[in-house]
């Protein structure tokens, strides 16, 4: 899902290659694993990329396997 505003572009997608505690993951600025999922747990990683003219951030949200990228809300 891609959301475009006046100042920012936000893209949310599932990162199928992300593995908790792996050194081979895509580089993220922030990792949110609030439930403490471990490598062997059943989870899903949502990649959130935020960009503007001057800056870019990448975030991964590690959560319930049954979460979907299209079921998220972005508050501005």
Features:
76 residues; mainly beta; 5-stranded mixed beta sheet; 39% strand
Would you write up a description of this structure?
- The chain is built from no helices and 5 strands.
- The protein is mainly beta.
- A 5-stranded mixed beta sheet has the order 1-2-4-5-3, with no helix packed on it.
- The two termini are 16 Å apart.
- The mean pLDDT is 88.
SS-based class: mainly beta
Question: Order of strands across the widest beta sheet?
Answer: 1-2-4-5-3
Tell me the β content.
35-45%
Give the helix tally. 0
**Unreliable runs:** none
Q: H/E series, N to C?
A: EEEEE
Rg (CA only) = 13 Å
Distance between the termini: 16 Å
Biggest sheet record? 5 strands, mixed
Estimate the mean pLDDT confidence.
Answer: 88
**What is the number of E strands?**
5
Helical content stands at under 10%
Q: What characteristic shape results from the CA principal axes? A: globular
Outline of this structure?
By secondary structure, the protein is mainly β. 0% of the residues lie in helices and 39% in strands. The chain has a five-stranded mixed beta sheet, with no helix packed on it.
């Amino acid at each position: 899902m891609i959301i475009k505003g006046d100042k920012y572009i936000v893209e949310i997608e599932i990162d199928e290659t992300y593995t908790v505690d792996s050194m081979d993951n895509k580089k993220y600025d922030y990792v949110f694993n609030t439930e403490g999922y471990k490598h062997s747990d059943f989870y899903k990683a949502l990649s959130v990329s935020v960009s503007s003219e001057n800056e870019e951030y990448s975030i991964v949200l590690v959560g319930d396997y049954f979460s979907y990228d299209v079921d998220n809300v972005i508050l501005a």
